[in-house]
Amino acid sequence: MKDHPRIIFFGTPDFAVASLDALILSEYNVIGVVTAPDKPSGRGMHLKSSPVKQYALKKGLHLLQPENLKDPMFLKELKSLLPDLQVVVAFRMLPVEIWSMPPLGTFNLHASLLPQYRGAAPINWAIINGEKETGVTTFFINEKIDTGNIIYSRKIWIDPDETAGELHDQLMKTGAKLVIETVTAIANNKIQVVSQELLMPDKNNIKKAPKIFKEHCRINWNDNVANIYNFIRGMSPSPCAYTTLTSSDGTPHYLKIYKAKPEFLFHNFPPGQILTDGHSYLKIAVRDGFIQLSEIQPAGRKALSIADFLRGAGRLFS
């Protein structure tokens, strides 16, 4: 069992696929994959499979998609697979009946350096808060979310212009390597866990990463350049920061903002003032400079460079 543990993998999005693929390429014995049920998506509301399901089907892995994680039939099937170890990457909270099942335990990969940024959106919040570093952590699951004993962690630097999407891809690759390292150590009984409580000398300095909803995504132009710039890149490409700009004819324009550039410059314009040449640039005044928009998406349209947007709407903002 120690050399070749029977593994059940839990995961749903692309972030999880990298870790599952690493397990398969490393020839670990993945005896089952648990992912979310298919969900309606798009204008036609056709059922869409999760990226993990698509990968599992391609590799011929045993697949389970429970609606209810406490369903007795699902729990019976899971137990019948006789797992030694369970690996969780980007999945929902597991009930004790599941995470306590295998003798070697159940561990989770989290996209932050725990205990910092516990929660659903650690990648977004690290950038929004202007962090210069973050990382990935593996830990054994317990009764509370993201609080279990730490197995390993790996730190990476955040580029000052990096978006949440770019950081996601970095952490996905680093996390997949850490999953393999963690499974190998557990299988060979070579781990020494660390309680998160020992890493929390001042609980007032622990930052959280709650789920982000649409109402949290509106840009506050009364803030400073650094905070607004971090907010935009921390929301890009999803869930995406947005604003409503009013053109010279009084029409409001709802815009998602994917990319922007900061300008630290003293001026006398009021926050929210639009400045543009109507052709090549459009920037918004904030209290200590400007935010120059680079890539945006008007309502009902595809993403555009600011030059392409102004080619059709530039006269409205001149």
Please describe what this structure looks like:
27% of the residues lie in helices and 27% in strands. It has 318 residues and is an alpha/beta fold. The chain folds into two domains: 6-205, Rossmann fold (3-Layer(aba) Sandwich), CATH 3.40.50.170; 214-317, Methionyl-tRNA Fmet Formyltransferase, Chain A, domain 2, CATH 3.10.25.10. Strands 5-2-1-6-7-8-9 form a seven-stranded mixed sheet. Strands 10, 11, 12, 13, 14 and 15 form a six-stranded antiparallel sheet that branches.
Helix share bin: 25-40%
DSSP summary, beta strand count: 15
Give the spatial strand order of the biggest sheet: 5-2-1-6-7-8-9
The whole-number mean of residue pLDDT values reads 94
Q: How far apart lie the N and C ends?
A: 70 Å
**How much of the polypeptide forms β-strand, as a percent range?**
25-35%
Strand-and-helix sequence, N→C?
Answer: EHEEEHEHEHEHEEHHEEEEEEH
Task: Count every helix, treating DSSP H or I runs of 4 or more residues as helices.
Answer: 8
Name the CATH superfamily classification of the largest domain.
Answer: Formyl transferase, N-terminal domain
Structural domain tally? 2
CATH topology of the largest domain: Rossmann fold
Q: Please state the overall shape, judged from the principal axes of the Cα atoms.
A: elongated
Give start-end ranges of low-pLDDT stretches: none
Name the structural class: alpha/beta
CATH architecture field of the largest domain: 3-Layer(aba) Sandwich
- Highest-level CATH class of the largest domain: Alpha Beta
Describe the main β-sheet briefly.
Answer: 7 strands, mixed
